[in-house]
Design a protein that fits this description.
The chain has a 16-stranded mixed β-sheet that branches. The protein is of the alpha+beta class. Helix content is 31%, strand content 41%. One of its GO terms (cellular component) is plasma membrane. Keywords: Membrane, Transmembrane, Transmembrane helix.
Length: 365
Protein backbone atom coordinates (compact mmCIF):
# COMPACT_ATOMS: atom_id res chain seq x y z
CA UNK A 1 0.00 0.00 0.00
CA UNK A 2 2.89 2.30 0.82
CA UNK A 3 4.54 1.46 -2.47
CA UNK A 4 1.31 2.21 -4.28
CA UNK A 5 1.15 5.58 -2.59
CA UNK A 6 4.63 6.55 -3.82
CA UNK A 7 3.88 5.18 -7.27
CA UNK A 8 0.77 7.29 -7.53
CA UNK A 9 2.74 10.31 -6.33
CA UNK A 10 5.42 9.78 -9.03
CA UNK A 11 2.75 9.50 -11.69
CA UNK A 12 1.21 12.72 -10.47
CA UNK A 13 4.57 14.48 -10.65
CA UNK A 14 5.18 13.13 -14.17
CA UNK A 15 1.70 14.23 -15.20
CA UNK A 16 2.46 17.69 -13.89
CA UNK A 17 5.92 18.02 -15.48
CA UNK A 18 5.03 16.66 -18.95
CA UNK A 19 2.94 19.70 -19.97
CA UNK A 20 5.63 21.94 -18.51
CA UNK A 21 8.29 20.23 -20.62
CA UNK A 22 6.17 20.49 -23.75
CA UNK A 23 5.58 24.17 -23.06
CA UNK A 24 9.30 24.75 -22.51
CA UNK A 25 10.20 22.96 -25.77
CA UNK A 26 7.57 24.91 -27.67
CA UNK A 27 8.81 28.17 -26.15
CA UNK A 28 12.41 27.32 -27.07
CA UNK A 29 11.41 26.52 -30.64
CA UNK A 30 9.49 29.78 -30.95
CA UNK A 31 12.43 31.80 -29.67
CA UNK A 32 14.79 29.93 -31.98
CA UNK A 33 12.60 30.76 -34.97
CA UNK A 34 12.31 34.39 -33.85
CA UNK A 35 16.09 34.69 -33.46
CA UNK A 36 16.69 33.08 -36.86
CA UNK A 37 14.18 35.44 -38.49
CA UNK A 38 15.80 38.40 -36.74
CA UNK A 39 19.24 37.27 -37.92
CA UNK A 40 17.97 36.85 -41.47
CA UNK A 41 16.36 40.30 -41.41
CA UNK A 42 19.51 41.85 -39.97
CA UNK A 43 21.68 39.97 -42.47
CA UNK A 44 19.42 41.02 -45.33
CA UNK A 45 19.53 44.64 -44.14
CA UNK A 46 23.33 44.59 -43.78
CA UNK A 47 24.07 42.66 -47.00
CA UNK A 48 23.67 45.67 -49.36
CA UNK A 49 25.94 47.73 -47.09
CA UNK A 50 28.61 45.01 -47.09
CA UNK A 51 28.29 44.56 -50.86
CA UNK A 52 28.62 48.30 -51.46
CA UNK A 53 31.81 48.42 -49.39
CA UNK A 54 33.13 45.33 -51.20
CA UNK A 55 32.38 46.76 -54.66
CA UNK A 56 33.92 50.15 -53.82
CA UNK A 57 37.04 48.43 -52.48
CA UNK A 58 37.26 46.32 -55.65
CA UNK A 59 36.99 49.40 -57.88
CA UNK A 60 39.64 51.29 -55.92
CA UNK A 61 42.05 48.36 -56.15
CA UNK A 62 42.13 48.56 -59.96
CA UNK A 63 45.60 49.80 -60.84
CA UNK A 64 45.53 53.37 -62.16
CA UNK A 65 41.80 53.89 -61.53
CA UNK A 66 39.47 55.00 -58.75
CA UNK A 67 35.76 54.35 -58.61
CA UNK A 68 32.58 54.21 -56.57
CA UNK A 69 28.93 53.13 -56.67
CA UNK A 70 25.87 55.00 -55.40
CA UNK A 71 23.82 52.10 -54.07
CA UNK A 72 23.24 48.34 -54.23
CA UNK A 73 19.97 46.38 -54.11
CA UNK A 74 19.75 42.66 -53.29
CA UNK A 75 17.08 40.26 -54.59
CA UNK A 76 17.64 36.97 -52.75
CA UNK A 77 14.57 35.33 -54.31
CA UNK A 78 16.25 35.33 -57.73
CA UNK A 79 19.87 35.14 -56.59
CA UNK A 80 20.78 38.62 -57.81
CA UNK A 81 22.10 42.01 -56.84
CA UNK A 82 21.96 45.32 -58.71
CA UNK A 83 24.66 47.99 -58.71
CA UNK A 84 23.46 51.58 -59.17
CA UNK A 85 25.56 54.53 -60.36
CA UNK A 86 28.97 53.00 -61.01
CA UNK A 87 31.72 55.44 -62.00
CA UNK A 88 35.36 54.61 -62.67
CA UNK A 89 37.92 57.38 -63.29
CA UNK A 90 41.49 57.16 -64.51
CA UNK A 91 43.84 58.82 -62.03
CA UNK A 92 44.65 61.87 -64.17
CA UNK A 93 43.31 65.33 -63.40
CA UNK A 94 43.60 66.27 -67.09
CA UNK A 95 40.92 63.75 -68.13
CA UNK A 96 37.61 65.08 -66.74
CA UNK A 97 35.33 62.24 -67.90
CA UNK A 98 35.03 58.79 -66.29
CA UNK A 99 36.30 55.74 -68.13
CA UNK A 100 33.11 53.92 -67.10
CA UNK A 101 29.75 55.42 -66.18
CA UNK A 102 27.00 52.82 -65.79
CA UNK A 103 23.48 53.52 -64.58
CA UNK A 104 22.75 49.96 -63.39
CA UNK A 105 24.41 46.55 -63.52
CA UNK A 106 22.22 43.56 -62.73
CA UNK A 107 24.14 40.40 -61.82
CA UNK A 108 22.11 37.24 -61.28
CA UNK A 109 22.08 33.46 -61.32
CA UNK A 110 20.97 32.06 -64.69
CA UNK A 111 18.24 29.68 -63.58
CA UNK A 112 17.74 28.11 -66.99
CA UNK A 113 21.33 26.84 -67.03
CA UNK A 114 20.61 24.72 -63.94
CA UNK A 115 18.59 22.39 -66.17
CA UNK A 116 21.82 21.81 -68.13
CA UNK A 117 23.72 21.05 -64.94
CA UNK A 118 25.64 24.35 -64.96
CA UNK A 119 25.83 27.15 -62.39
CA UNK A 120 26.48 30.35 -64.34
CA UNK A 121 25.44 33.98 -64.26
CA UNK A 122 23.69 36.69 -66.28
CA UNK A 123 24.85 40.30 -66.51
CA UNK A 124 22.60 43.11 -67.77
CA UNK A 125 23.92 46.67 -68.10
CA UNK A 126 21.61 49.65 -68.48
CA UNK A 127 23.03 52.85 -70.03
CA UNK A 128 26.72 51.95 -69.82
CA UNK A 129 29.09 54.65 -71.13
CA UNK A 130 32.73 53.97 -72.03
CA UNK A 131 34.89 57.05 -72.62
CA UNK A 132 38.18 56.55 -74.41
CA UNK A 133 40.05 59.82 -74.05
CA UNK A 134 43.27 61.77 -74.42
CA UNK A 135 44.21 64.24 -71.70
CA UNK A 136 44.31 68.01 -72.19
CA UNK A 137 48.12 67.83 -72.15
CA UNK A 138 48.11 65.11 -74.80
CA UNK A 139 50.45 63.02 -72.63
CA UNK A 140 47.97 60.50 -71.22
CA UNK A 141 45.47 58.21 -72.91
CA UNK A 142 42.47 56.60 -71.25
CA UNK A 143 42.01 53.28 -73.07
CA UNK A 144 41.84 50.56 -70.42
CA UNK A 145 44.12 48.24 -72.41
CA UNK A 146 46.91 48.54 -69.85
CA UNK A 147 44.74 46.97 -67.13
CA UNK A 148 43.85 43.33 -66.48
CA UNK A 149 40.08 43.44 -65.93
CA UNK A 150 39.73 39.72 -65.15
CA UNK A 151 40.21 40.08 -61.39
CA UNK A 152 37.72 42.93 -60.73
CA UNK A 153 35.09 41.28 -62.93
CA UNK A 154 35.53 38.03 -60.99
CA UNK A 155 35.28 39.94 -57.71
CA UNK A 156 31.98 41.50 -58.79
CA UNK A 157 30.58 38.30 -60.34
CA UNK A 158 32.04 35.13 -58.81
CA UNK A 159 30.00 32.92 -61.15
CA UNK A 160 31.13 32.26 -64.71
CA UNK A 161 29.26 34.70 -66.96
CA UNK A 162 27.13 32.99 -69.62
CA UNK A 163 24.92 35.85 -70.86
CA UNK A 164 25.53 39.59 -71.27
CA UNK A 165 23.02 42.20 -72.42
CA UNK A 166 23.57 45.94 -72.88
CA UNK A 167 20.78 48.50 -73.24
CA UNK A 168 21.20 52.13 -74.33
CA UNK A 169 25.00 51.97 -74.35
CA UNK A 170 27.47 54.59 -75.56
CA UNK A 171 31.14 54.38 -76.59
CA UNK A 172 32.99 57.65 -77.17
CA UNK A 173 36.45 58.93 -78.00
CA UNK A 174 37.22 62.41 -76.67
CA UNK A 175 40.45 64.32 -77.21
CA UNK A 176 40.82 67.21 -74.77
CA UNK A 177 44.14 68.32 -76.27
CA UNK A 178 42.54 69.67 -79.47
CA UNK A 179 40.51 72.80 -80.19
CA UNK A 180 37.67 72.24 -80.69
CA UNK A 181 37.55 69.10 -78.58
CA UNK A 182 37.19 65.92 -80.63
CA UNK A 183 34.14 63.87 -79.64
CA UNK A 184 33.18 60.90 -81.80
CA UNK A 185 30.80 58.25 -80.55
CA UNK A 186 28.40 55.40 -81.08
CA UNK A 187 25.24 55.60 -78.99
CA UNK A 188 21.82 53.95 -78.60
CA UNK A 189 23.75 50.70 -78.46
CA UNK A 190 22.10 47.35 -77.90
CA UNK A 191 24.31 44.32 -77.46
CA UNK A 192 23.77 40.71 -76.53
CA UNK A 193 26.10 37.74 -76.28
CA UNK A 194 24.74 34.33 -75.33
CA UNK A 195 26.08 30.93 -74.27
CA UNK A 196 29.54 32.20 -73.37
CA UNK A 197 30.22 29.13 -71.22
CA UNK A 198 28.86 26.73 -73.87
CA UNK A 199 26.05 25.49 -71.65
CA UNK A 200 23.64 24.70 -74.50
CA UNK A 201 25.69 23.03 -77.26
CA UNK A 202 28.83 21.16 -76.22
CA UNK A 203 29.75 20.19 -79.80
CA UNK A 204 29.63 23.65 -81.41
CA UNK A 205 33.00 25.04 -82.52
CA UNK A 206 31.74 28.62 -82.02
CA UNK A 207 28.97 28.26 -79.43
CA UNK A 208 28.49 31.90 -78.44
CA UNK A 209 26.39 34.32 -80.50
CA UNK A 210 27.17 38.06 -80.57
CA UNK A 211 24.82 40.83 -81.73
CA UNK A 212 25.52 44.58 -81.51
CA UNK A 213 23.69 47.55 -83.02
CA UNK A 214 23.94 51.29 -82.55
CA UNK A 215 23.89 54.80 -84.02
CA UNK A 216 27.13 56.65 -84.75
CA UNK A 217 28.01 60.32 -84.91
CA UNK A 218 26.67 61.63 -88.20
CA UNK A 219 23.62 59.35 -88.05
CA UNK A 220 25.37 56.17 -89.16
CA UNK A 221 23.91 52.72 -88.59
CA UNK A 222 26.22 50.15 -86.99
CA UNK A 223 25.68 46.40 -86.95
CA UNK A 224 27.99 43.62 -85.71
CA UNK A 225 27.18 39.92 -85.84
CA UNK A 226 29.47 37.14 -84.79
CA UNK A 227 30.10 33.73 -83.31
CA UNK A 228 32.71 33.15 -80.62
CA UNK A 229 34.49 30.56 -78.55
CA UNK A 230 36.05 32.29 -75.54
CA UNK A 231 36.72 29.03 -73.69
CA UNK A 232 39.95 28.49 -75.64
CA UNK A 233 43.14 30.05 -74.27
CA UNK A 234 43.26 32.14 -77.44
CA UNK A 235 39.62 32.74 -78.49
CA UNK A 236 38.23 31.76 -81.90
CA UNK A 237 35.74 34.05 -83.64
CA UNK A 238 33.95 34.89 -86.88
CA UNK A 239 32.73 38.49 -86.90
CA UNK A 240 31.09 40.62 -89.58
CA UNK A 241 30.61 44.35 -89.05
CA UNK A 242 29.22 47.28 -90.99
CA UNK A 243 28.79 51.01 -90.45
CA UNK A 244 26.66 52.77 -93.06
CA UNK A 245 25.39 56.25 -93.96
CA UNK A 246 27.68 58.36 -91.77
CA UNK A 247 27.41 62.05 -92.67
CA UNK A 248 31.07 63.11 -93.13
CA UNK A 249 30.65 66.80 -92.13
CA UNK A 250 29.74 65.54 -88.64
CA UNK A 251 33.35 64.27 -88.40
CA UNK A 252 34.92 67.65 -89.20
CA UNK A 253 36.29 68.23 -85.67
CA UNK A 254 38.18 64.95 -85.92
CA UNK A 255 39.19 65.46 -89.57
CA UNK A 256 40.37 69.00 -88.87
CA UNK A 257 42.41 67.96 -85.82
CA UNK A 258 44.12 64.92 -87.29
CA UNK A 259 44.11 65.48 -91.06
CA UNK A 260 43.67 69.23 -91.45
CA UNK A 261 40.67 68.88 -93.76
CA UNK A 262 36.98 69.83 -93.76
CA UNK A 263 34.15 68.03 -95.48
CA UNK A 264 31.45 70.04 -97.20
CA UNK A 265 29.47 66.89 -97.92
CA UNK A 266 29.89 63.15 -98.21
CA UNK A 267 28.86 59.83 -96.76
CA UNK A 268 31.04 57.22 -95.13
CA UNK A 269 30.56 53.45 -94.92
CA UNK A 270 32.75 50.77 -93.38
CA UNK A 271 32.61 47.00 -93.86
CA UNK A 272 34.69 44.39 -92.08
CA UNK A 273 35.12 40.65 -91.85
CA UNK A 274 37.33 39.23 -89.09
CA UNK A 275 38.29 35.61 -88.44
CA UNK A 276 40.35 34.28 -85.53
CA UNK A 277 41.30 30.61 -85.65
CA UNK A 278 43.93 28.94 -83.48
CA UNK A 279 45.72 32.26 -82.92
CA UNK A 280 45.69 33.29 -86.60
CA UNK A 281 43.95 36.54 -87.50
CA UNK A 282 42.65 37.10 -91.04
CA UNK A 283 40.09 39.40 -92.59
CA UNK A 284 39.67 42.84 -94.06
CA UNK A 285 38.35 46.33 -93.43
CA UNK A 286 36.82 48.19 -96.35
CA UNK A 287 36.12 51.93 -95.92
CA UNK A 288 33.91 53.43 -98.61
CA UNK A 289 33.17 57.15 -99.01
CA UNK A 290 30.75 58.66 -101.52
CA UNK A 291 29.85 62.18 -102.72
CA UNK A 292 32.97 63.68 -101.14
CA UNK A 293 33.47 67.45 -101.32
CA UNK A 294 36.13 69.28 -99.31
CA UNK A 295 36.03 72.93 -98.27
CA UNK A 296 38.59 75.36 -96.89
CA UNK A 297 37.67 77.20 -93.69
CA UNK A 298 41.12 78.71 -93.16
CA UNK A 299 43.42 81.17 -94.90
CA UNK A 300 46.46 79.23 -93.69
CA UNK A 301 48.35 78.37 -96.92
CA UNK A 302 49.63 75.10 -95.44
CA UNK A 303 46.06 74.02 -94.70
CA UNK A 304 45.01 74.94 -98.23
CA UNK A 305 47.94 72.97 -99.66
CA UNK A 306 47.14 69.90 -97.54
CA UNK A 307 43.45 69.96 -98.44
CA UNK A 308 44.37 70.28 -102.12
CA UNK A 309 46.61 67.22 -101.78
CA UNK A 310 43.89 65.21 -100.05
CA UNK A 311 41.37 66.26 -102.69
CA UNK A 312 43.79 65.10 -105.39
CA UNK A 313 44.25 61.70 -103.69
CA UNK A 314 40.50 61.29 -103.39
CA UNK A 315 40.10 62.21 -107.05
CA UNK A 316 42.79 59.74 -108.19
CA UNK A 317 41.44 56.79 -106.22
CA UNK A 318 37.76 57.48 -106.68
CA UNK A 319 35.44 55.53 -108.90
CA UNK A 320 34.42 58.50 -111.03
CA UNK A 321 31.16 56.97 -112.20
CA UNK A 322 29.96 56.36 -108.66
CA UNK A 323 31.86 59.22 -107.03
CA UNK A 324 33.31 56.78 -104.52
CA UNK A 325 36.57 56.51 -102.64
CA UNK A 326 37.33 53.01 -101.40
CA UNK A 327 40.16 50.76 -100.39
CA UNK A 328 40.36 47.33 -98.82
CA UNK A 329 42.67 46.91 -95.85
CA UNK A 330 43.79 43.32 -95.38
CA UNK A 331 44.16 42.05 -91.83
CA UNK A 332 46.66 39.33 -91.08
CA UNK A 333 48.61 38.41 -87.99
CA UNK A 334 49.27 35.89 -85.26
CA UNK A 335 48.62 35.88 -81.55
CA UNK A 336 51.66 33.86 -80.58
CA UNK A 337 50.74 32.59 -77.14
CA UNK A 338 48.02 32.70 -74.48
CA UNK A 339 50.28 34.96 -72.40
CA UNK A 340 50.15 37.61 -75.12
CA UNK A 341 47.84 40.54 -74.38
CA UNK A 342 45.04 39.58 -76.75
CA UNK A 343 43.49 43.00 -77.28
CA UNK A 344 46.82 44.82 -77.57
CA UNK A 345 47.97 42.34 -80.21
CA UNK A 346 44.71 42.64 -82.13
CA UNK A 347 44.89 46.44 -81.98
CA UNK A 348 48.46 46.26 -83.33
CA UNK A 349 47.33 44.11 -86.25
CA UNK A 350 44.65 46.67 -87.12
CA UNK A 351 47.06 49.60 -86.78
CA UNK A 352 49.71 47.98 -88.96
CA UNK A 353 47.13 47.12 -91.60
CA UNK A 354 45.91 50.72 -91.79
CA UNK A 355 49.45 52.11 -92.01
CA UNK A 356 50.38 49.67 -94.77
CA UNK A 357 47.19 50.25 -96.72
CA UNK A 358 47.43 54.01 -96.73
CA UNK A 359 51.18 53.98 -97.37
CA UNK A 360 50.52 51.84 -100.44
CA UNK A 361 47.73 54.17 -101.46
CA UNK A 362 49.78 57.38 -101.58
CA UNK A 363 53.20 56.10 -102.62
CA UNK A 364 54.05 56.35 -106.35
CA UNK A 365 54.23 53.19 -108.44
Amino acid sequence: MVMGFFKNKDNAINDETAPHKRHRVRKTMIWTVVILIALLIAGRAYLPIWLKDHVNETLNNIDGYRGSVEDIDVALYRGAYTIHGLELFKIDKNIPVPFLDIRTIDLSLQWGALFHGEIVGDVTLDRPIINFARSSTGQTAQTGVETDWTKPIKELMPLDINFVEINDGRIAYQDFSTTPKVDIFIEDMYAKVTNLRNVEDKNAALPSVLQISGKSIGGGDMRIDGKLNILKKVPDAEIKAKLEKVNLPALNDYARAFAGIDFEQGNFNLYSDLNLKNGNVTGYIKPLATDIHLIDLSEDPFTVLWESFVAAVVDIFSNQRKDQFATQIELQGTIDSPETNFWSTLRGIFRNAFVQAYTNTIKPE
